[in-house]
TrEMBL record:
Official protein name in the record: Asparagine synthetase B
Keyword terms, alphabetized: Signal
Signal peptide limits: 1-19
Organism from which the protein derives: Patiriisocius marinistellae
């Protein structure tokens, strides 16, 4: 054997032995900054590097090509990581690929462009999603009605709905806050915006926004919503062309017998629901379980469903966590009446004792949607004016991880789910 051949073999052997990857572990013991780990993954995708999301492997870990730049970024952000040799990486991927293992390696290809639907004056901590995006250092753009009605949604892969009221009833805050300066000011601003955009009523303008968002999802977009944005969005779709607002909201009476005029065939997730007619009740409809649930704070936990990583990678991605039991939290819309959820919608998280759904997902046209009940996963009963949640105190929050699973979902190569 020639010296040249020996040198070449030694070089190739050395390269193979030293080639390495970075594993971002996401199990309970292996990661000290779960939320910022998603930010590292997003940052890596922004650098045009592909990432493998190892579903059900150590809490849904991320596998990234090794580089000194990524190691330094992990250290700066406090994210735990492990450097793996090429052979160790091959062994892990072989184990994951085994038909006997409920695991899968999903390729994340590009950083999704993220839009948050929120009034321009809102502070980032008014909404759990903007808080966790900021904490994880994942960039986003804030858009509102003008941008949506101006067809700017096509610029984004992922849309989050703020805790908004798409029915034009100003969040049903009338009874408690109708004399509060902030309520009066917000009502005035909403009316001025509706007029500016060419609508006679806020309810009509918000209904038009809901239809644009519907079209965005049907065309292939991904929509994630929390709290009151979930049920009020579906109600607005069902009530298209029907006046369900009382005079204190829009200046004229609601339509007689409007309950029988709404069409739940137009909704994403909910069916057979009854609207709450009284403006004095802080509730939109029978969909929400907030006032009906008999659950104590100490026992308020919901369970995540278990899916096949190989056959149902989409819901499996969305439930990745270091625990299958997530601490519950309240909101204007806390959870969903199971009987009022359409049969083609997946219930990914439920409170087993009451049967209420907390976390649901579905397909609409070419796109996807996820509804997550509650306001803030680390603030059990958030109230108007409460201080922001300091996520530095909750870096491993399972409830916030569910939000970030949804953020990364559009980056994945999609396989059709079987469920």
């Amino acid at each position: 054997m020639s010296k040249y051949t020996i040198v070449l073999l030694l070089f190739l052997f050395g390269w193979s032995a030293n080639a390495s990857y970075i594993l971002i572990p996401m199990d309970e013991d292996g990661q000290k900054e779960h939320l910022k780990a998603y930010g590292i993954t997003y940052w890596t995708l922004e650098k045009n590097a592909k990432v493998k999301w190892l579903l059900n492997y150590r809490g849904g870990s991320f596998l990234i090509p090794d580089s000194e730049e990524i190691r330094k970024e992990c250290q700066i952000r406090g994210v735990s990581f492990e450097v793996l040799s090429d052979s160790k990486t091959e062994q892990i991927l072989t184990d994951i690929a085994s038909p006997s293992q409920n695991m899968e390696a999903v390729v994340l290809e590009k950083a999704p462009k993220i839009a948050v639907y929120s009034p321009k004056g809102n502070l980032p901590w008014d909404d759990a999603v903007t808080m966790v995006l900021t904490y994880a250092e994942i960039p986003y753009k804030t858009i509102y009605d003008e941008e949506v009605l101006g067809d700017e949604l096509i610029l984004y892969d992922w849309l989050h709905l703020h805790h908004e009221d798409f029915t034009g009833q100003y969040g049903k805050f009338y009874r408690a806050y109708r004399s509060a300066p902030w309520y009066i000011e917000e009502k005035k601003k909403s009316e001025e915006l509706a007029t500016k955009l060419g609508y006679n009523k806020v309810s009509e303008e918000k209904g038009a926004v809901a239809l644009k968002i519907r079209d965005y999802v049907v065309g292939g977009g991904f929509m994630f919503a929390m709290c009151s944005a979930t049920d009020s969005f579906d109600i607005a779709l069902a009530a298209e062309g029907v006046d369900i607002c009382e005079p204190m909201f829009d200046g004229d009476p609601s339509e007689p017998n409007y309950q029988n005029k709404i069409d739940d065939k137009k909704t994403f997730a909910f069916k057979d629901f009854t609207l709450e007619r009284s403006p004095m009740v802080y509730e939109f409809s029978s969909i929400d379980m907030t006032t009906k649930r008999k659950v104590h704070k100490e026992t308020d936990y919901f369970s995540l469903m278990d899916y096949s990583a190989k056959w149902d990678p989409i819901p499996c991605m969305l439930v990745q966590n270091h625990t299958s039991l997530v601490k519950g939290f309240m909101g204007q819309t806390t959870s969903y009446q199971r009987e009022e959820i359409k049969s083609n919608v997946l219930i990914m998280g439920e409170h087993k004792a009451t049967g209420e759904a907390r976390y649901i997902h579905g397909i609409k046209g070419k796109g996807f949607f996820t509804f997550y009940g509650g306001h803030d996963p680390e603030d059990y009963q958030h109230r108007v004016g409460d201080a922001k949640t300091e996520l530095a105190l909750h870096p491993n929050s399972p409830g916030y991880r569910l939000i970030l699973n949804n953020v990364l979902f559009p980056a994945a190569k999609k396989k059709k789910q079987k469920t």
